[in-house]
Design brief:
Length: 333
Amino acid sequence: MRPITNVSRVFAGKRILITGGLGFIGSNLARRLVGMGARVSIVDSLVPEYGGNRRNLAGVAGRIKVHVADVRDWPRLPSLVRGQDYLFNLAGQTSHMDSMSDPQTDLDINCRAQLAILEACRLHNPTIRIVFASTRQIYGKPDYLPVDEKHPLRPVDVNGINKMAGESFHLLYSRVHGIAATALRLTNTIGPRMRIKDARQTFVGVWIRCLVEGRPFEVWGGEQLRDFTYVDDAVDAFLLAAARPEAVGQVFNLGGPPRVTLRRLAEFLVELNDGGVFSVREFPGERKKIDIGDYYADDRLIGRKLGWVPRTGLREALQQTIAYYRSELRHYV
């Protein structure tokens, strides 16, 4: 854990709710907030497909109140948001392919439930401060690189459309109802506690699982450029966005240096693991239809407005992640 200058004391003693809090980013955020002296509660459905894992709170579970609940259970939402000072809203369905094969579930979680959460806040806790986890997927295939916040929004899959709606609801409620909200558009967040069972959360998780288990993995395409954000840096951004009044009503890209091709990322992982095998293959047809091609973010706006700077290089991020799963693999497969 690492302090952020002038931010840690903001959350001491505050009541904080994290939806999706047993998941990857939510649990890392919860752990940091506990270390700051916050009173943290978590909502997580623990639906197997969506990434929640009680192991993610190992060592701090006794200091966090966990509500096993689904954000689609609208009648429960008022009691959950009431009395909270901050809401970090990370509950969501993240699989792009699942959104295409089961669009109604994606709609329920990433769109309808988001509106229900905001209504619960409007009616039962209008002074709550919200930071919403949005995604770079809402941009679709970039017209230019790096992608800034002014880029057109043209999602290429159902997940992107519903996440765009969820983000828009948050900004609308901030603008019209005074519910102080900020949206962070995340890109390829990696690190300890990410889902590695499958590619529902990130393809990097599957690659790392294969490496640690001594199995080959596949790289689809290989020449696409991507940037990656280490989870500690993403947590910094959530905390800064919640703590700084100038973030209210704003949208910020997250990114992280350097941008690399997927093939080079795979080679880098093999080097850091001291061994491993991968093969490059053409994109499967159903995935190619929703691939966004090259993407990397222009994250200068959050740097200028909030002072956020990604502080973890790609080498360190991958080393930390590989080391974590070498010791914790059995809890994540």
